[in-house]
Specification:
The structure is a single chain. Strand 10 (254-258), helix 8 and strand 11 (280-284) form a beta-alpha-beta unit. The chain has ten helices and 15 strands. It starts with a strand and ends in a 9-residue tail after the last strand. It is elongated and about 70 Å long. The strands form two sheets. The protein has an eight-stranded mixed sheet with strand order 2-3-1-4-8-7-5-6. Strands 11-10-9-12-13-15-14 form a seven-stranded mixed sheet, with helices on one face. With 380 residues, it is α/β, with parallel strands linked by helices.
Length: 380
């Protein structure tokens, strides 16, 4: 059966992540709200960290238990053989999330789990790990339901959406795994032109380039499993080498624009950091005035809503103009807009072919698809 894992992801991407993990060799991938449970060997775990575009982390389940009190949770945590899992001298952080838990204080139960881990270490070895919140070597995650709890060791370390590609940001950047999900949900393929006409720091374009070229998103970073006692350095090196050999030499048609010069500057720097310099044609342009770069293609965009553009009144003026610009200059294009402003379809005066619920953190959003055909899809 192998080890048991859980990979959280942005809500709305669970089915895509289950398919991705299955393709990467995970067994029994099963979607639940907020992520995917799966099984596999350590190659599957390392591979998921290296290749998953959609997961936020890969958590290794080390215990599950029933509980009714803080003491029950302490005893369950103390029963785990923590000294067998990571070396003396590693720093530690504990995170607790709960859903319908009867326990009163998450802060207190976090402290009790830390105590349990340190008490087990002290009983077995005479020493204990140091607690480090900012950049710990080892992260323990606890998830508490009404009467059941689960303990995980984090095999990822820093969240997987931190690819190490983005150094320069503009307002409200998308997390990379959500951006990858938007590109994948658009149905874009490497043979098609792709345009982000409100590109900001270029996150959607970078994820599209990585998808189109088959670049492993984790190829340039370190992972939490490298700090665990069972780390297999030879296996990890083999997987990384194989990933490097899989990079495609496909010629991609990727285009980006933004009306802000500083956004184009940030996107240029981020593309260079990611190793995709020169792969995307960037220009300063307003979406309301620019023309389509090809006769047909896929548009993906995270248009400004509220925080980035301004007031609801400004948006109410902008969206009808956007609809007109699409109809006039983007016939033949499949246009996808990710937004928390659920007024968009009504105000843009175009009929969405599809609307996919997604969450940006706790913020409920939609990915709207508009298929632009000259003279049709206009709302009356």
């Amino acid at each position: 059966m192998g080890e048991r894992y859980f990979a959280p992801c942005p809500r709305g991407l669970e089915a895509l992540l289950a398919a991705e993990l299955s393709a990467l060799g995970a067994a029994g991938a099963r979607s639940v709200p907020g992520g995917v449970a799966f099984e596999g060997d350590w190659a599957a775990c390392y591979g998921a960290n290296l290749h998953s575009r959609l997961a936020s982390r890969v958590l290794w389940r080390v215990a599950d238990f029933r509980y009714a009190s803080e003491h029950d949770v302490y005893e369950a945590a103390r029963a785990v053989d923590w000294p067998a899992h990571f070396a003396a001298g590693c720093t530690l952080r504990v995170n607790v999330t709960a859903q319908a838990s009867p326990l009163r204080s998450l802060e207190f139960i976090t402290l009790r789990i830390k105590d349990a881990i340190c008490d087990r270490w002290r009983a077995d070895t005479g020493s204990r790990p140091s607690i480090e919140r900012a950049r710990p070597d080892v992260r323990v995650h606890a998830f508490l339901e009404a009467d059941r709890g689960t303990l995980y060791l984090d095999t990822s370390g820093e969240p997987l959406f931190k690819r190490g590609w983005r150094r320069h940001t503009v307002e409200a950047p998308l997390r990379e795994n959500l951006a990858a999900g938007i590109v994948l949900l658009s149905g874009w393929g490497p043979a098609e032109p792709l345009l982000d006409p409100m590109c900001g720091g270029g996150t959607l374009l970078i994820e599209a380039a990585a998808i189109g070229l088959g670049v492993a998103p984790g190829a340039g970073r370190a992972f939490g499993f490298e700090k665990l006692s069972n780390f297999d350095a030879k296996l990890w090196q083999r997987l990384k080498s194989a990933a490097g050999e899989q990079r495609s030499k496909a010629r991609l048609e990727l285009y980006g624009s933004d009306r802000e010069a500083r956004a184009i500057e940030a996107a240029t720097k981020n593309l260079t950091t990611a190793g995709f310099a020169g792969l995307v044609r960037l220009e300063r342009a307003d979406i309301l005035a620019r023309s389509a770069p090809a006769a047909a293609g896929v548009m993906v965009a995270n248009p400004p809503y509220g925080e980035r553009l301004g007031s609801a009144e400004e948006l109410a003026r902008f969206y009808p103009q956007l609809g007109d610009a699409l109809k006039q200059r983007f016939a033949g294009w499949r246009c996808h807009f990710f937004t928390a402003d659920l007024r968009l379809p009504k105000l843009i005066r175009l009929q969405p072919a599809r609307r996919v619920p997604l969450f940006n953190g706790a913020l409920e959003c939609r990915l709207y698809e508009f298929r632009i055909v000259a003279g049709s899809h206009r709302r009356s």
